[in-house]
Amino acid sequence: MIIILGKIPKETKKSDVIHFFSPALKTGLFKKPGEIKQIKMPIMKDEKTKLFSYYSLVFIEPNEIAKQAIKKLNRKFFNGNYITVREFHHRSALNDRRVNVKEWRNPKVTARKADRRQANLKVRSSSLVSFSN
Predict the structure, then answer these.
(1) 85-124 pLDDT, tens digit each
(2) What letters, b where the CB count within 10 A reaches 16 and e where it falls short, cover 26-60?
């Protein structure tokens, strides 16, 4: 499962993310602990406002441990901020259920006045760390 840490501080390092997750990945005596497989730290830039946002994508196995980690770590203090921790879902404008696929380029009526997806975001850079045993 992929977990996203939302709007983390700019100075965050991968070692900080590992240290943040390590207590949540431990389990009881008879369960195998969770394992971080990969960490990505994309930097997103809003082309309209020219502001940067920093995120961390953490790939954790097994999924049960990842779900427990989300519950334990959401809204916790991390590097000076309270952050959101949630499951990452890849979303595309093509998957918008409010509009017919044929009308996607020029929709006439939508349920929302504005789309909540941030269309102006661009990935500026992304660093990747893989872990293997």
Answers:
(1) 999 988 776 666 665 555 555 555 555 555 566 677 777 7
(2) eeeeeeeebebbebbbbebbeeeeeeebbbbbbbb
Domains of the chain, first to last: 2-88+123-130 (3.30.70.330)
- Read off the pLDDT band of 39 (50, 70, 90): very high
C-alpha–C-alpha distance, residues 122 and 125, integer Å: 9
Q: How far is the C-alpha of 1 from the C-alpha of 117, rounded, in Å? A: 22
The CA distance from 88 to 57, in Å, is 8
Enter the tokens of residue 74.
């959401």
pTM: 0.77
Report the distance separating Cα 53 and Cα 81, nearest Å.
14
